[in-house]
Amino acid sequence: MDGVPPDLLGEPRRHPDFAWGFLGRLLTLTGYYITTTFQLYVLQDHIGLGDDAVDAIPLISVVSLLATLVSTVVGGPLSDRMGRRKPVAVAAGLLIAAGLVAPWLMPTMTGIIVFAVLAGLGFGSYLAVDQALLTEVLPTTEDNGRYLGVLNIAVTLPQALAPAIAGLIVSLLSYAALFPIAMVVAVAGALAVLPIRSVR
Q1: CA 33 to CA 14: how far, in whole Å?
Q2: Which domain holds residue 31?
């Protein structure tokens, strides 16, 4: 396939660290976006705000943005000081999962705000270290641009598919199932980086 690095599709076992890094990013971001891209409907139906849900979104967005900014500023230097990427990436994914517990068990605005804080902290920390981690597991120097393009799929695909996944979960199951499923996906993404051997 034109533009795809050799061995990426046919022999991922030859580059397991790259494959684990790709999977970790894909799952972690999917777990995050499953609920955040479906936020309006969560507020309307799960939280019960109805038409007032639109008015709540700016507050939630500001809280999430502030948490993301703080953890982005802290997460990168912390990883550099530790000389390790994986612990921060794992902790970030687990923070996102922890945030999802709040609106699942507490379907109120308070639960949503707690989610915005914890998931924002996790998302920011993840952004701070994920790219650095993944650039250290690129299989070859000759195809770096192509491999980075492939890694970008793990960013754009969750954003594109998450609303459809969320809608499917809610229609087949319920909002009560949306959050634990997203939690499992986020935790799986966090744990997926553990088998990476070339990065600490």
Answers
A1: 30
A2: 16-192
Structure tokens at 100: 């999802």
84-122 residue pLDDT tens: 888 999 999 999 999 999 999 999 999 999 999 999 999
| Residue 101: DSSP 8-state | H
Asked if 31 and 97 count as a contact pair (C-beta separation under 8 A), the reply is yes
Q: What is the CATH number of the domain that holds 179?
A: 1.20.1250.20
Whether the predicted pLDDT of 12 surpasses 70? no
- With vertex at residue 176, the alpha carbon angle to CA 41 and CA 36, rounded to the nearest 5 degrees, is 40
Direct distance between the N- and C-terminal alpha carbons of the chain, in angstroms, rounded to an integer: 33
Cβ atoms of residues 9 and 150 within 8 Å: no
Estimate to the nearest angstrom the gap between the alpha carbon of 43 and the chain centroid: 20
The 10s digit of each residue's pLDDT in 124-162 is 999 889 888 888 888 766 777 788 888 899 999 999 999
Q: What is the total count of domains within the chain?
A: 1
C-alpha closest to that of 190 among 133, 137, 106: 133
User: Does the pTM exceed 0.85?
Assistant: yes
HSE-CB of 68 using CA atoms within 13 angstroms: 14
